[in-house]
Amino acid sequence: MATPVMEKTAAKDSAPSPYITVTFRIRRFNPEVSDEAQWQDFQIEIDPKERVLDGLHKIKWDVDGSLTFRRSCAHGICGSDAMRINGKNRLACKTLIKDINPEKPITVEAIKGLTVLKDLVVDMDPFFQAYRDVMPFLVTTGNEPTRERLQSAEDRERFDDTTKCILCAACTSSCPVFWNDGQYFGPAAIVNAHRFIFDSRDEAGEQRLEILNDKDGVWRCRTTFNCTDACPRGIEVTKAIQEVKRALITRRF
Would you give the distance in Å from CA 222 to the centre of its chain? Predict the structure, then answer.
C-alpha cells in the first residue's frame, strides 16, 4: 500500500508538463558579418504563460549568446525592449507567448524607421534628439518658489494621459510617415510636448507650438492611428497630436 507521500509524488509526476515547443523566428543582423539581415529560427521549450522576453532570454542564455537585444526592468516601465513581434510593435516584457498563437513561428525583429545596429538593437539617437528638441521640461520665470508649484486636480487632468509615456519608441517607429522620413518629429516627441504645452504651470507653450509648427512637426501626421494602437501604456497618441494641431490653429484667435 502506497503511503500518502508516495501517492502525492506519483500524482505530481503524472501531471502534464506546461511546456510546449515554440519556434522563434528572429531577424538577425551583424554588420561585422554581412550587410544583409537574415531570418534565423530557434526552437525552445517554454511555458506559454511566459513572455516573449523570457523566450529571448532562454535563446541568448542557453542557445546563442550572440543574440543582441535591449532590456532592463522587464516590467513595462523602462520601455527598452520595444520590438516588432508578429508584425506589431510591442514590449517583449508585456507580451505573453500564449496571446500570440505559439502554434506558429513567433517573428521578432527590430522596430522600423531607425538604423539597426545589431539584431534587435536600433540607434535611438534620432528619436531622443526629437524628444530633446521639443523642450520636455517645465519652463517658468521669476524667482525660485519657496514651496512646490501647486496645481488643481482639473488642471493636472488636462495632460494626465501624456505623462504616461516611457519613451519606448513603439509609437514613433509604427508611423508610416516616420518610416519614410526620419526628419519627422514623430508621435513620442509630440506627446511629450503636449504634456507641457497644456501644463498650467508652464510658460513655454507658445515656443513649443512654434517648434511643432515646422514642416517636420505635427502637420506631417496623417492620422492613421498606428501610434495609438502601438502604445503599450494606452496613451491616446493620435488624440494628443490632434489637440496640438488644434492649439496651433486657435492660438491666433
Answer: 20
Residue 170 lies in a domain: yes
Residues 22, 103, single domain; the answer is yes
In angstroms, the CA 238 to CA 162 distance is: 11
The residue with cell 509526476 is 13
Domain housing 32? 17-122
Position 5 in a domain: no
Distance CA 226, CA 177 (A): 11
Query: The pTM is what?
Result: 0.90
Instruction: Give Cα separations from 164 to 168, 194, 236 (angstroms).
Output: 11, 12, 10
Contact 227, 172 (CB under 8 A): yes
Q: Is 23 exposed, middle or buried (0-12, 13-18, 19+ CB in 10 A)?
A: middle
Supply 79's cell numbers: 520601455
DSSP 94: G
The half-sphere exposure of 14 on its side-chain side, counting CA atoms within 13 A, is: 6
* Per-residue confidence in pLDDT tens, the chain, 253 aa: 555 555 555 555 667 889 999 999 999 999 999 999 999 999 999 999 999 999 999 999 999 999 999 999 999 999 999 999 999 999 999 999 999 988 999 999 999 999 999 999 999 999 999 999 999 999 998 888 888 889 999 999 999 999 999 999 999 999 999 999 878 999 999 999 999 999 999 999 999 999 999 988 999 999 999 999 999 999 999 999 999 999 999 986 5
Half-sphere exposure of 2 (CA within 13 A, CB side): 8
SS3 (DSSP) at 127: helix
Coil vs helix vs strand at 40: strand
